Amino acid sequence: MRASLIQIAVDPDEPVDSRRTRVAELVREERGAADLVVLPELWPTGAFAYESFAAESEPLRGPTYEAMAAAARDAEVWLHAGSVVEAVGGALYNTSLVFSPRGELAASYRKIHRFGFDKGEAVMMAAGEELVTVEVPGQLTLGVATCYDLRFPELFRGLVEAGAEAFVVPAGWPERRRTHWTLLARARAVENQAYVLACGTAGTHAGVEQAGHSIVVDPWGEVLAEAGPDEEVLRVTLDPAKVTTTRDQFPALKDRVLGVARPERG
């Protein structure tokens, strides 16, 4: 399975419509080179551009949806189009979109863990409630997560229970915590014996320097490819059989104990 992670530079001086057009063309350029293309979190607006969330929000089938559906169809790829600020009634969600090679919506995922503690995304956006997987026929079953989700291993264990063999994690991860980004991506791969495809943004937006360094990790925790700090396309070939082989040769997942009661505090 050939995968391309497009590490988009989010420049606040670039109009959102222009960036949509540019990113759609980058996806089209992967025609014949990739089976799966992955984009970062909130690349239309910037993950830290909180003041723009409401103004740049869109319905699920809004302009980003239309542009990415067309790009997936033209490139004939599975496309994880990163995420958008989705407006639903009076609520906002950080919503990921996954398209089939026909340009059809295969899945959408509303981010469950919102970053910011008592500000930003955590208070401006509603939380998703459903785990989402996508089966790529003849290849891998993808588990979908977003950025801050990476810090919560129980979400990924739930995705494994749902059949995930690879995790796709778009992000807008800050440079100041880049070591956590790499460490957590490898940890999620090792503990779940699954591929991790973590695609971040480059550049600086809302005064926050982005980490870049998109990374692909195999089920044994080995780094297959890692980007630098700037905009680039990271290409890698995944062997779907390696998930089964790793889980068979080191069957740690069979020993997991689910639903253990928490001890009472006295």
Automatic annotation (TrEMBL):
Protein name: Carbon-nitrogen family hydrolase
Keyword terms: Hydrolase
Gene3D superfamilies hit by this protein: Carbon-nitrogen hydrolase
Any Pfam family matching the protein: CN_hydrolase
InterPro entries found in the cross-reference section: C-N_Hydrolase (IPR003010), C-N_Hydrolase_sf (IPR036526), UPF0012_CS (IPR001110)
Gene Ontology molecular functions: hydrolase activity
All residue ranges annotated as the CN hydrolase domain in the record: 1-240
Protein family (similarity comment): Belongs to the carbon-nitrogen hydrolase superfamily. NIT1/NIT2 family.
